[in-house]
């Protein structure tokens, strides 16, 4: 059986892979410089007295790090207009959590946009989980300037229950539908929480009152690794079966072209390409268009 340290060490080796190793080398050539940080809808980094050479280097690295899925970020006058306007989701959820002085984890944290936003809430500790070496490198690039104490682990949701400590609040945003066993995933999240801890989760849902889930044949919105899309009632049942006792539906929101769209920072397709060109209520495969439920589940 692999220990957490052995998994961690193995994955740190992924930073030597050719897709990111040369970018990390470039980041390491940037000196430790003074910055002013503004954290709002845009995570903005001001660099006083920035040189033309540094501007060019920052832009070069940012382009090398594409695609930028979550954000946006601004470094001096370089605006990284990410595919997702992630502040829409964050601002939707913000009234529903209090993480001051708490140990917080973001599972599937991507490049850490939500973690950077959470710095303003004064948590005790922030830890991100995501096994992508590209997203880790994007985070490292931004954090080179932010200089936060956020811990980024190249681990997955399956490692949360075996982590060195428990969490007061866990965020798991846009992950559950990528898991072939959603109840086991929810159990791992449950095991990672302290008693009385909270899980903030969002996932795709379908309309209906029955306790059922859509199981796409091959792809959903052109995404291959989408396994189950439940009704809200089925999602709640999954949470109950994982051990959660108090489940609150916070919001249901259809994903629209304001929140997710194609930009020059992804060089690939986005929501507009995933929907039926004749009926935006359907995906290209004929399934209901993406809609998300946001829930809060508590550990007794």
UniProtKB/TrEMBL annotation:
- Keyword tRNA processing in the entry? The reply is yes
What GO terms in the biological process aspect are recorded for it? methylation; tRNA wobble uridine modification
Cite the InterPro entries for this sequence: CmoB, Mo5U34_MeTrfas-like, SAM-dependent_MTases_sf
Its EC number(s)? 2.1.1.-
Matching Gene3D superfamilies, A to Z? Vaccinia Virus protein VP39
Q: What class of enzyme is it?
A: transferase
Molecular-function GO term, any one:
methyltransferase activity
Assigned keywords, A-Z: Methyltransferase, Transferase, tRNA processing
Protein name per Swiss-Prot or TrEMBL: tRNA (Mo5U34)-methyltransferase
Organism listed in the record: Sulfurovum sp. enrichment culture clone C5
Q: What is the lineage of its organism?
A: Bacteria, Pseudomonadati, Campylobacterota, Epsilonproteobacteria, Campylobacterales
């Amino acid at each position: 059986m692999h220990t957490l340290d052995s998994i961690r060490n193995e994955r740190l080796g992924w930073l030597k892979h050719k897709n990111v190793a040369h970018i990390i080398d470039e980041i390491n050539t940037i000196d430790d410089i003074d910055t002013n940080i503004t954290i709002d809808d845009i995570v903005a980094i001001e660099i006083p007295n920035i040189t033309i050479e540094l501007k060019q280097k920052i832009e070069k690295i940012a382009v090398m790090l594409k695609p930028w899925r979550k954000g946006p970020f601004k470094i001096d006058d370089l605006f990284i207009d990410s595919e997702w306007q992630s502040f829409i989701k964050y601002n939707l959820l913000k009234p529903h959590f209090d993480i001051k002085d708490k140990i917080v984890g973001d599972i599937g944290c991507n490049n850490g946009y939500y973690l950077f936003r959470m710095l303003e809430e004064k948590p005790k500790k922030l830890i991100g989980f995501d096994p992508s070496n590209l997203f880790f490198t994007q985070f490292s690039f931004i954090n080179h300037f932010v200089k936060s104490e956020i811990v980024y682990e190249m681990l997955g949701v399956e490692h949360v229950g075996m982590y060195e400590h428990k969490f007061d609040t866990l965020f798991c945003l846009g992950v559950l539908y990528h898991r072939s066993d959603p109840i086991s995933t929810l159990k791992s999240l449950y095991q990672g929480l302290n008693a009385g801890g909270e899980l903030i989760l969002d996932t795709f849902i379908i309309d209906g009152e029955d306790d059922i889930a859509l199981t796409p044949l091959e792809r959903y919105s052109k995404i291959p690794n989408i396994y189950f899309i439940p009704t809200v009632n089925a999602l709640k049942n999954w949470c109950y079966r994982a051990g959660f006792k108090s489940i609150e539906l916070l919001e249901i929101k259809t994903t629209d072209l304001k929140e997710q769209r194609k930009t020059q920072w992804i060089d690939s397709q986005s929501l507009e390409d995933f929907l039926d060109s004749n009926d935006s209520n359907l995906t290209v495969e004929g399934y209901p268009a993406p809609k998300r439920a946001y829930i809060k589940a508590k550990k007794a």
